[in-house]
Design goal:
The chain contains three helices and no strands. The protein is mostly helical and 71 residues long. The model has no long low-confidence stretch (mean pLDDT 94).
């Protein structure tokens, strides 16, 4: 599996709460964050407004990609 390292900055109280939640769930902080990120992605994908925004982004970038392909 291809993995990448990402650094996030959290306010102290949020970071402390995350540690407690991860411990209570008997998992690492990294695993708790991975699960939260996956859930966020699933939620966004299911949102019709997000889908519209994603398609708009794709359409707006298509011309740039096509120009790059012609270089």
């Amino acid at each position: 599996m291809d993995t990448r390292t990402t650094t996030i900055r959290l306010p102290g109280p949020t970071a402390e709460a995350l540690v407690v939640v991860a411990k209570a769930d008997n998992q690492s902080v990294s695993e708790a964050v991975r699960q939260a990120v996956l859930e966020h992605i699933r939620t966004r994908r299911a949102d019709p407004e997000f889908q519209k925004s994603l398609h708009h982004l794709l359409d707006s970038q298509r011309e740039v990609f096509e120009r790059l392909a012609d270089l």
